[in-house]
Amino acid sequence: MKHEEYDVLNVEGGSHIKMWTKGVPVEAEARQQLSNTAKMPFIYKHLAVMPDVHLGKGSTIGSVIPTLGAIIPAAVGVDIGCGMMAAKTTLNARDLPDNLGPLRSAIEKAIPHGASPKTRGFKGRDKGSWETPPTPVDAAWAQLKDEFDAVCLKTPKLAKTNNYRHLGTLGSGNHFIEVCLDETNAVWFMLHSGSRGVGNAIGSHFIELAKQEMRTHFINLPDQDLAYLPEGTRHYDDYIEAVGWAQKFARMNREVMMQNLIAAVRTVITKPFETHVEAVNCHHNYVQKEQHFGKDVLVTRKGAVSARAGELGIIPGSMGAKSFIVRGKGNPESFNSCSHGAGRTMSRTEAKKRFTIDDQIKATEGVECRKDANVIDEIPMAYKDIDAVMEAQRALVEVIHTLKQVVCVKG
């Protein structure tokens, strides 16, 4: 079925799917995942699919999954609360140094990033964690600790995770810190991270508990990563508490990183400047209770951003591509949502096979960033065309600012 804004995919024995994907590719495997999710009996109304949709674990990344009476932990994923933060400053392009290398180095020194190799017997400190957390980390952790202790009473093994020492750190993969210029040459700081090691542990633990529930009750699923926790059960309640805490951790993680990013920039740029002239901090992997079509429902955004009427959000491109600060239009059919980025067109493994360091250097020309073999999987050509993605969701958001990075720090 066709609609002016979106296409409708009808699923036999399941809810229908509304797809804001006009003009962008959607792989067959992602369509199959969407159909599998739509067949779950507790989906409310329909699935909403964003233009950056691509294959994920159990459910596609770039989908909005409203549920009644149950939750799918793997749909929320293991990077709970992953999201973006951006702050506009009073700096202009002319205030940046001609050589951006020292600025990038200052940021890399100020914020732990990357991850130590997961080799058997490795017992050293994760290079992506703090050796001695600074004062902003202590202040933020004080706001999180009591609730975390309560979560650990129910799931004791979480106490042994990397939590406090990961607060205010970047991680690896597609997480990044950027200095950007907007359409007026104003300088923005932008970063992308989530709940780090402790969020991964929470997600992994409850995904396995959900799978055990399915085996215990002999429930057959089209994909084992669609294992769910029914409302009213102990595991459901424990998960809701833990995932809520992880989302608070993720938001605070970005706030602490932004503080340290600003402090690092001030060591290189001595001109006084203000920050947070405009500021956004938004999740794009999370679950929360919302009201839609007259009912309170759980909305899982797996690679999607809340876009209520007037709400600001961030849609980043890939390394070397444009990013956007957007204002939501409050489209009810999308459950007030928009995409969380461009969306991959190929796996990381495929990107490393297909592209070279020379390709990476050319694609990130003019950006002060890593240009080595370990970041080829983040090359812009491994992602969908961000302009096509934005065109496909014109009914969901309006663009307020267009950003182009000049410095990019990757884990």
Q: Which ranges are low-confidence, i.e. pLDDT below 50, for 5 or more consecutive residues?
A: none
The helical percent reads 25-40%
Average pLDDT works out at 94
Widest beta sheet: strand line-up: 10-6-8-7-17-15-14
CATH third-level topology: tRNA-splicing ligase RtcB
Pattern of helices and strands: EEHEEEHEHHEEHEHEEEEEEEHHHE
Estimate the strand proportion.
15-25%
What's the CATH H-level superfamily name?
tRNA-splicing ligase RtcB
Q: What's the count of strands?
A: 17
CATH architecture: Alpha-Beta Complex
Key structural traits:
411 residues, six-stranded mixed beta sheet, 9 helices, single chain, alpha+beta, seven-stranded antiparallel beta sheet, tRNA-splicing ligase RtcB
Explain this structure.
By secondary structure, the protein is α+β, with helices and mostly antiparallel strands. The chain has a single domain, classed as tRNA-splicing ligase RtcB. The chain is built from nine helices and 17 strands. The chain has helices spanning 28-38, 73-76, 101-110, 135-154, 196-216, 234-268, 348-354, 357-363, 386-392, and strands at residues 7-9, 16-19, 46-54, 61-67, 70-71, 83-92, 176-181, 186-193, 229-230, 279-283, 285-292, 295-302, 304-306, 312-315, 323-328, 337-339, 397-410. It has a seven-stranded antiparallel β-sheet with strand order 10-6-8-7-17-15-14. The chain has a six-stranded mixed β-sheet with strand order 1-2-3-4-12-11, with helices on both faces. A two-stranded antiparallel sheet has the order 5-9. A hairpin with a 6-residue loop joins strand 3 (46-54) and strand 4 (61-67). The chain is globular. The termini are far apart. The mean pLDDT is 94.
